[in-house]
Amino acid sequence: MDGLTADVFALDYAAEAERIAERLRQATARELHKRGLVVAISGGVDSSVCAALAVRALGAQRVFALILPERDSADESARHARILAGHLGVRVETVDIAPTLAAIGCYAARDEAVRRVLPDYADDWRMKIVIAGGREGGINHFNLVARSPHGVTHERALGLADYLQIVAATSFKQRVRKTLEYYHADRLNYAVVGTPNRLEYDQGFFVKNGDGSADVKPIAHLYKTQVYGMARHLGLPACVAQAAPTTDTYSLAQGQDEFYFALPWAQMDRALWALEHGRTAAELGHALDISEAAAEAVYADIRNKRRSTRYLHLPPLLLQDVPAGAPA
To answer: Running DSSP on this structure, what letter comes out for residue 253?
Structure first.
């Protein structure tokens, strides 16, 4: 158990906040040649910390925040985001992206796949998909969970084609949001801030050309535990500094561990740290109070996600080298 407590994430937050802010200043002006930063704020801790660090780096007058709710967003998400924007003193614009998503078929395509699995599903039902198998050492698969207006919950196994269609349709949400971020970035000559933490970045928990697209990612090296610590250090409002991680993508409330990770975030942080530092499955199992076999399954799931999501990190592949222009 030694070395696998939350103490492994200890950080000099004052020094780290200043280091990130200074690096953001340099990157924005000298490498990206931009005047400021655009941050989409969701009401969650990751985007909130990124916005606060952007303000520390450049000042509130050179940070532009976007709040981008849609039909399935929780009401408190936008409310918390507005509280954060007021706290930071940044310019903010709210755009409801639901009409755009409806126009391009996001909701219709998702519901078409859901009804193939659950024919009774109707527009006034709520749904989500949940992951299973990986933490037991098996192959990950997904189930549909849907709840009727009368409170009756149904769960069905999802076939691959239906799962892929639901995910492809919901990925419109991240891609439309990113389109708006880059519109405002182009309009203002600003750079776009990406908000993944280390766990999300390492495990490919993002949409390519959606929330994975950005000019700078200031907290991709920080574990989620450290992001929460940074939020406390920066004095952010409690509603965002203590916000539980959710996907805020489906109409039923959904934790990130339900949809993607093998364990809740705090345990996943420790598992990722342990794997990166060569700790055995037995040590991890002892620290998390799970069996050695279960801990090994978590390690295997981390490795599998790294392999299967590697393409998300890759730039477009060139089939032949293209020489760069001669230096000026």
So the answer is: -
